Amino acid sequence: MAQQAPAKRTACKRPTATLLKPSRYDDEGYVIRHFRGVLPGNKLTCLSSLTEDLKRRRALGRNLNIEDAMLKKKNAPVDWESVLAGISSGKTVAEHGVNHRIFDQGQPADSIFYLRRGKVKLSVISKQGKEAIVATLSAGDFLGEGCLAGQPLRMSTATTVTDCSLFRIDKLVMLRLLHEKHAISELFVAHLLSRNIRYESDLVDQLFNSSEKRLARILLLLAHFGKESRAELVLPEVSQDHLAQMIGTTRSRVSHFMNKFRKLGFVDYSDGDGLTVHSGLLSVVLHD
């Protein structure tokens, strides 16, 4: 009787669980998520713990080995000044002081601006003459980009809050650049999407949060909370009247909440150079 050959042992497959941690943030501190890292950091940590538990208990089989790796995806911020430096014609440099109107609501939308340095506020005025601040932009932001989508007139007024330096780029020049340079076009779209996420968050904040939470959130955004771990200075030019317009309440309510934040140690006026916002103010935003 022929002896049966021993069965070949197949190599045990070693599955790999790869968890990517998103680490790129936009200009307002919101996470720009990598296409494979769709979960925020706290959920990523939970998944890592679950993977470790599967390995320890051998829940998927005693002969199945699991290798896991937690990666931190690093993306360098886009250097738009270098990107736009390739434009030889149709671009001018503008330097403006405080309270200068870059463009007015209702003017022809024939150019786009890139903010190199400083801060700019966007405001709209109703037919009754009531003004509302809809956004505050910082260095690295574009403004007036609606002209690229066929917007014939400016929908808002852009006013400098501090001394500013800007690139003014003709509409047709920017459209040609985006059409010819696909890599630049993709970067620009990513930039606009991050801004859109911010505007959606602003709308949700306005609809569902109290005026106290809205004030705390706008102070944290103005202080660039999330970019660095330290407290930062909020511009002294941002008055309580401006804050009231930005969050949709009265100046007296803003004054009441600012005094409350100061007594709790969340903000500080003591240095005389402006308003210092401390990270403890985040507790107001997170509190239910």
Structural overview:
The structure is a single chain. With 288 residues, the protein is an alpha+beta fold. The chain folds into three domains: 16-73, no CATH class; 80-206, Jelly Rolls (Sandwich), CATH 2.60.120; 209-286, Winged helix-like DNA-binding domain superfamily/Winged helix DNA-binding domain (Arc Repressor Mutant, subunit A). Helices cover 34% and strands 24% of the residues. It has eight helices and 15 strands. The chain has helices at residues 41-57, 80-84, 171-180, 182-208, 211-222, 240-247, 251-263, 282-286; strands at 16-22, 24-25, 31-32, 67-73, 91-96, 101-103, 111-117, 120-125, 131-137, 142-143, 157-160, 164-170, 232-234, 267-268, 275-277. The strands form five sheets. It has a four-stranded antiparallel beta sheet with strand order 5-12-7-10. β2 (24-25) and β3 form a beta hairpin. The protein is globular and about 70 Å long. The termini are far apart.
TL;DR?
It contains 8 helices and 15 strands. It is of the alpha+beta class.
Order of helices and strands: EEEHEHEEEEEEEEHHHEHHEEH
What is the CATH topology classification name of the largest domain?
Jelly Rolls
- How would a crystallographer describe the biggest sheet? 4 strands, antiparallel
Task: Supply the CATH superfamily name of the largest domain.
Answer: Jelly Rolls
- The overall strand count is 15
C-alpha geometry:
globular
**Assigned CATH class of the largest domain:** Mainly Beta
Number of domains: 3
How much of the sequence lies in strands comes to 15-25%
Low-confidence stretches: 33-41
Question: What is the count of DSSP helices, taking H or I runs of 4+ residues?
Answer: 8
Distance between the termini: 79 Å
The helix content is: 25-40%
Supply the helix-strand structural class: alpha+beta
Strand order of the largest sheet: 5-12-7-10
What Rg is obtained from the alpha carbons, in whole angstroms? Answer: 25 Å
Average pLDDT, rounded to a whole number, is 77
CATH architecture group name of the largest domain:
Sandwich
